[in-house]
Specification:
heterodimer; A: mainly alpha; 4 helices; about 65% helix; B: mainly alpha; two-stranded antiparallel sheet; 4 strands; about 0% strand
Chain lengths: ~120, ~475
Amino acid sequence: MIILEAFILATIFCGFLGIILKQNLMMKIISMDVMSTGIIGFYVLVAANPGLFAPIVVVDGTDKGTEAIAYADPVPQAVILTAIVIGFSIQALMLVAVMKLARDNPTLDCREIERSALR
Amino acid sequence: MNKLTIIWIALPLFVGFSIYLLPQLSRILALAVSLVSLAYGLWFVFVPEPLTLELVGSFGVSLFVDQLSGFFILTNAVVTAAVILYCWSSDKGSFFYTQAIILHGSVNSVFICADLISVYVALEVIGIAAFLLIAYPRTERSIWVGLRYLFVSNTAMLFYLLGTALVYQANHSFAFTALENAPSAAIALIFLGLLAKGGIFVSGLWLPLTHGESESPVSALLSGAVVKTGVFPLIRFALILPELDPLVRLFGVMTALFGVGFAVFAKDTKRILAFHTVSQLGFILAAPAVGGFYALTHGLVKSALFLIAGKLPSRDLKVLQKNPIPTSLWIALAIASFSISGFPLLSGFGAKVLTTKNLLPWQVIGMNIAALGTAISFAKFIFLPHARQPKDLESAASSPGTGFWLAIVLLLGGLVFSNVFYYDAYSLQNVVKPLATIGVGWLAYILVFQKLSVKLPRAAEQFDHLIGTMSLTLILLFWIVLA
C-alpha cells in the first residue's frame, strides 16, 4: 500500500513539475492532466483502503449477503467520477482555446504568447 | 423553506439553459433570476434563522444557510442585476446571458454548501463559466487572459482535491466539520486551493491582469461576486474551527497590506481597482465573523467602480488628469470612492467600523495602514478634473446610456440602503477616525503620491511565475500549519 501511495505522489509531483518547467502550452496542459490522473489514483487508493470488492450486497436466499466481506468504499469512487468529468471538460475547453491561439502563435511557447497577446 | 431552497438553487441552471432556447427573453429571464436571489438573500439577512439541509443522507450534499450566506447571496444578486442592466442595450448575445446566469447560480451554491466536495464542484463550474465570459469577445488577448485564469484556477483546485482526499481518509466524511481531525497537510492543501482561487496574498497575483483586461461588465462580476467564492469557505472554516481563526486573520492582514501596496503605485484605473480588490478581500478575512457585511459593501462599490471605469475616456490616469471627465460620471465615481474610503453616510463606513471593532489587537496597526492606503489610492479618483459638458462630439457619442445609470443607481442606492444593517456605527467617536484617515490619506496623496511615479515590476504576474508562486505559498502554509 505504501509503495502504491509513493508512486501516486510521485505522479502528482511530476505533473506539477511539468506545469512549471515546460515552456510549450500544450505540454503544460498535458502535465496538468498527469497531475490530475495522480489525484484520481489517490482517490481510488483511499477507496480501496477497506477492501477491493464491489460494495453491493447480494441477496440470493443464502446467508452470503450478511457475511463480512472486505468491501471497497463507494464514496470516494463516486466523488472522483464527478471530478474526472469536470477535469475532462476543462481540458477540452483549454484545448479549444489553444487551437485558437495556435493560429497566430504556431510555436505555442508561453512567453511568446504572453508577449504578443498582452502587447 | 427546504423546498424553496432547492428550487432557488436549481433555478439559475434551468433558466440558464432555457435562455439559449428563448434568446428573445434572455435579458428578462436573467434579470428575473437575480431578483429571485435578491429576495432569497434579503430573507436570510433579516430572518437570521439558520437552515441545515442534508440531501440523500450523511454522505450526500449538505447545505447550510445563515445570515452570513444571506449577505453574500445579496451581494451576488445585486451585482448580477446591475451587470445585466448595464448590458441591456449592448449587442451581447444570449450566450453571454446564459453564462452570466450559470455563473450566478454556481456562485450562489458556494455560499450555501457545507461540504468540501460540493464546494469543489461549484468552484470548478465557476471557473468554466468565468472563462467563457472573459473569452466572450473572442480576441486573442481575451482568450489568453481567460486561459491563464482557467489554468491557474484548475491547478489550484487539484491541490484542493488532494487535501479533500486526505480529510476523507482521516474522518470518512467530507463535511466542513471534519477538518477538525484532519492532518495538517490536508489543511495546507485546501487553504492553498482556496487562497489561489480567491485571489488572496501572493497566490492571487493572477487577479490584477484578469480583472484589469476583461470587459468592464465581466470585471464587475468577477470582482464583485466571483472572487468572494474563494473567501467564503475560509470564513466558514474560521467560524466553525476556532484553531483556524488566527491563520485566516493572518492572511487577511497580509493580503490587505499586499494589495494596497500595489494599488497606491498603480497608474491604470482598472489595475488600481483590481489590486484594491485583493486588499479588500483581506479586510473581509481579517474579521471573519462580520465578513458578510463587508463583502456586501465591497461587492456593490467595486462593481460600480468597474462599470464607471469602463465609461471613462481613458484607462491611463495621466491622460485623465489632463482631460476633464463629464461631471455626472465624476459624481458617481466620487460617491463610490467616498464609500470605499469609509466616509460616513455610506455603508462603507459602517462596514469599516464593524470590521475594526472585531479586530484582534495584533491586527490593528496593519489594518489601519491598509485603510490609509485605501484613502490614498481613491484620492486619485476623487481629485480627477471634471467639466459640465463633454468637450467634443466624440465623447458625446460614447456617453453612457440609461442602462448604465440604472445599474449605477441600483449599486449606489444599495450602498445607502445597507446602512440599516449597522446604524449603531454613527457615534461621534466612530465618525472621527475614518475622517482623520481620509484627511491624512488625501494629504499624503497631494504632497507625495501625486508626483511620485514608481513603476513596480510586473514580472511576478507572468504566467510561469503564477504557478511557481503557488508552490511557495504551499511551503509557507505547511510551515505555518506545522509550527
